[in-house]
Structure to design on (207 residues):
C-alpha cells in the first residue's frame, strides 16, 4: 500500500479527485496518509479532516524565516514517512533538503503542457492568463517528478485540452482541471503504486 502525503494550498479539488479515485477503485494500492497546507484557511484541510485524514497547517507566516519553515516542513514529512509526496496545487517552493530526502518520490501537477507556460511565476490563474494572451489553441496539464528546478523534473503524464474561442482564465482553468488534472493525477499515482513507473537518466517511463 503506497502511503501518500498530499500538499495543497487551496480548495483541494485535486485532493478530492485522488480520494474519489480511491473510493471508486480506479486508483488502487494507495492511501492518503496526511494532508499538509501552507494556508490555515485551505478547504483542503477540511476535506482531509472530514475523512479522518491527518491534516496539518505549516505556514511560512508562523516562522521567523524561510529556513525555519523549510525545516518544519521537512520534519513533518519525515514524521509522516510517506512513500510518495503529491503536490496538488501547493504554491510553495519545495526545499532542496526535502527533494534530497525523497528522491523520485515527489510528484507535481502543473496546469499546462510543460515546457510551455511553466517555471517561475507560472501558477494558478497566471498560467491560464498567459495561455490566452499568447493565443495558443491547445493547453493541458502535466504530472512530473520534482527535481531541483522549477517544473523541470521528469514528465510522467500529459493530457491536452483545447482552448475555446470565448474562454476566460477562469473557464479555461475549470476545463483543464475537469478534463486533464483530475484524470491524470490519480492515474499517475496508480501507476506508481502498482510499480509501473521507472525513472532513469532524467526521464520517467511507464513499464
Amino acid at each position: 500500500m503506497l502511503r501518500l502525503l498530499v500538499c495543497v494550498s487551496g480548495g483541494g479539488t485535486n485532493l478530492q479527485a485522488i480520494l474519489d479515485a480511491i473510493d471508486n477503485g480506479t486508483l488502487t494500492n494507495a492511501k492518503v496518509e496526511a494532508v499538509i497546507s501552507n494556508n490555515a484557511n485551505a478547504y483542503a484541510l477540511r476535506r482531509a479532516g472530514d475523512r479522518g485524514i491527518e491534516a496539518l497547517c505549516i505556514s511560512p507566516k508562523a516562522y521567523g524565516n524561510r529556513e525555519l519553515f523549510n525545516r518544519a516542513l521537512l520534519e513533518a514529512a519525515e514524521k509522516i514517512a510517506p512513500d510518495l509526496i503529491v503536490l496538488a496545487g501547493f504554491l510553495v517552493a519545495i526545499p532542496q533538503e526535502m527533494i534530497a530526502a525523497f528522491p523520485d518520490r515527489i510528484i507535481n501537477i502543473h496546469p499546462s503542457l510543460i515546457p510551455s507556460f511553466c517555471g517561475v511565476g507560472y501558477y494558478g490563474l497566471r498560467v491560464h492568463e498567459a495561455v490566452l494572451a499568447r493565443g495558443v489553441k491547445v493547453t493541458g496539464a502535466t504530472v512530473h517528478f520534482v527535481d531541483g528546478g522549477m517544473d523541470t523534473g521528469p514528465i510522467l503524464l500529459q493530457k491536452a485540452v483545447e482552448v475555446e474561442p470565448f474562454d476566460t482564465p477562469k473557464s479555461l482553468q475549470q476545463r483543464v482541471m475537469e478534463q486533464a488534472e483530475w484524470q491524470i493525477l490519480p492515474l499517475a499515482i496508480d501507476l506508481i503504486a502498482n510499480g509501473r513507473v521507472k525513472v532513469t537518466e532524467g526521464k520517467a517511463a511507464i513499464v
